[in-house]
Design goal:
By secondary structure, the chain is of the alpha+beta class. The chain contains 14 helices and 17 strands. The protein is elongated, with a radius of gyration of 45 Å.
């Protein structure tokens, strides 16, 4: 059992963190209180902008419906301009669309016309307001516009839109659509805005609508952070003024930050205790990690030694037996009497099988422990490995070597790691990639070795790498970690896969620890 000694600072660090986090919680609480007004103002700003745009869109839809009525009236193919047809169209608008209060027609001379419903007397009010200059301008521009807002007998503000009635080469007069501002705007705003905000809409110095007759600019005895937002409706520039209700303002008060402060204090205590436990285990975890790394190095070292021993035994023992067996068969073949074609064919087949077994044995021995790596170095070993794989699969492999000749020879551990990663990558390409071409590039520059293996195969989704990776990929990363390097894998469906191994040419020292 390992007994660890803890440094004196291990107790000081949690205490300092506790004080620091406590002060930080208090500062966050104060900042939360200070930011409530700013958050409320931003929320009000956003709602005002959304409400203004909503009203613009709503008014545009209402005016578009009225404009369709005007066009249908003017362009009727039968030239049916009867009062019955006008009243039928007007009733459809008033009944089906919110805000429409009355519809009127005015002759080109501004005198004769109809109104529906007649009780609204929209034409009489319009004529009393002396809108002839506006009508003349509309006739010239051929575009709809709003007239000046006015109050009815009940003190409700009404607004009227005027549409010129045009046929090709003929002017038929004007259509007047009277809207109830209260009904129109009241329909537009949804319940959430009503629940949280007071608002008012004005046209210049005329108040068109306000959400509550009791509303004022003071909320809770203090000035409310109200905002104004302009919107354009035809030729009129309306102003939306919006400010939060007392209930919404209270929800942004200082009391909102108390749970944050209490949570911060509790979090400070808990986190400081966890840090203390963590620091007490750091030495043990570091020691265990070092032991694990040592064990992994030993396992790989023993594995390579066992592969080398197995390669030698196979080559020396089984290779000699296969050679002797071939010599015996050659001796028997030479002593067969002439005319024994069947026996000669059998001997030749046996010789062919022995030669194939000998070739496969050499390949297996080379895979277990590449002799070229020890005898001729990394370049010859990689070239031989690439050639071997290229002969065994229908994939072309381009090998590029760019080694700094001034650099010292690679350490045996790094050379073997590079060889194994390339071997595993080419095996994966042969088994899974379905590639037509692969590219291998080894570069050694400024103390860094980079091995890149790329193919044009089917690829895969990178998010599924953890689910599909086996011992091969994990083994590559473990080998790279032991020489201080990394393995990065990039892939996408139908775009191939790229494996990049980078490591310093100086392998970190592997010291034994008790």
């Amino acid at each position: 059992m390992v007994k660890l000694r803890y440094a004196p600072r291990i107790w000081l660090i949690p205490a300092v963190m506790l004080v620091f986090l406590g002060l930080l919680s208090f500062w966050v609480w104060q900042r939360q209180i200070d930011n409530q007004a700013l958050l409320l103002a931003r929320h009000t700003d956003d709602v005002a902008l959304q409400a203004a745009r909503r009203l613009e869109v709503f008014m545009a839809a209402e005016l578009r419906a009225a404009n369709v009525f005007a066009r249908r009236w003017s362009e009727h193919e039968d030239r049916d301009f009867s009062k019955e047809r006008f009243e039928r169209f007007a009733q459809i608008l008033i009944q089906d669309l919110p805000g429409f209060q009355a519809v009127g027609l005015l002759s080109p001379a501004y005198k004769v016309g109809w109104a529906s419903p007649a009780a609204q007397d929209v034409l009489a009010r319009f004529q009393r307001l002396d809108q002839r200059p506006l009508l003349a301008q509309l006739r010239q521009n051929q575009e709809p516009n709003f007239a000046e807002p006015y109050l009815n007998a009940q003190g409700v503000t009404n607004i009227a839109a005027i549409f010129p009635l045009l046929r090709p080469d003929e002017f038929l007069g004007f259509m007047l659509v009277q809207f109830s501002a209260v009904r129109l705007i009241d329909t537009c705003f949804h319940t959430r805005i009503r629940a949280e905000f007071h608002f008012a809409i004005s046209d210049g110095d005329r108040l068109l609508f306000r959400s509550s007759p009791l509303v004022n600019w003071a909320v809770g005895g203090q000035a409310a952070p109200g905002v104004s937002q302009g919107l354009q409706v035809l030729n009129r520039r309306w102003q939306l003024r919006l400010w939060p209700k007392p209930e919404l303002a209270a929800s942004y008060g200082w009391g909102v930050g108390i749970p944050i402060f209490l949570f911060g204090i509790m979090l400070s205590l808990g986190f400081s205790w966890l840090v203390l436990l963590l620091l007490r285990r750091m030495e043990m975890l570091r020691w265990a990690r070092d032991q694990q790394a040592q064990l992994a190095r030993k396992v790989l070292h023993v594995q390579e030694e066992e592969r080398a021993r197995l390669s030698r035994d196979l080559h020396d023992e089984l290779g000699q037996l296969l050679t002797a067996l071939r010599l015996e068969i050659d001796w028997l073949e030479k002593r067969l009497p002439s005319g024994c074609a069947t026996e000669v064919g059998v001997m030749e087949n046996a010789t062919t099988l022995i030669e194939g077994a000998t070739t496969e044995l050499r390949r297996m021995c080379s895979g277990l422990r590449p002799p070229l790596l020890d005898d001729l170095g990394i370049e010859a070993a990689l070239a031989s490995l690439v050639k071997e794989f290229e002969e065994r699969m229908a994939t072309g492999i381009d090998l590029g070597l760019d080694l700094d000749q001034q650099s010292p020879a690679l350490a045996p551990e790094l050379a073997l790691c590079t060889y194994r990663i390339l071997q595993e990558s080419l095996t994966n390409i042969r088994r899974h990639a379905q590639a037509d071409q692969a590219w291998v590039q080894l570069t050694v520059r400024t103390g860094t070795l980079t091995l890149s293996i790329r193919d044009d195969g089917v690829g895969f989704v990178e998010s599924q790498l953890e689910a599909r990776q086996g011992l091969g990929i994990e083994g590559m990363r473990e080998r790279a970690h032991l020489v201080g390097g990394t393995v990065a894998i990039e892939s996408s469906p139908k775009r191939g896969t790229t494996v990049v191994f980078r490591a310093p040419t100086t392998v970190p020292a592997q010291e034994e620890k008790a």
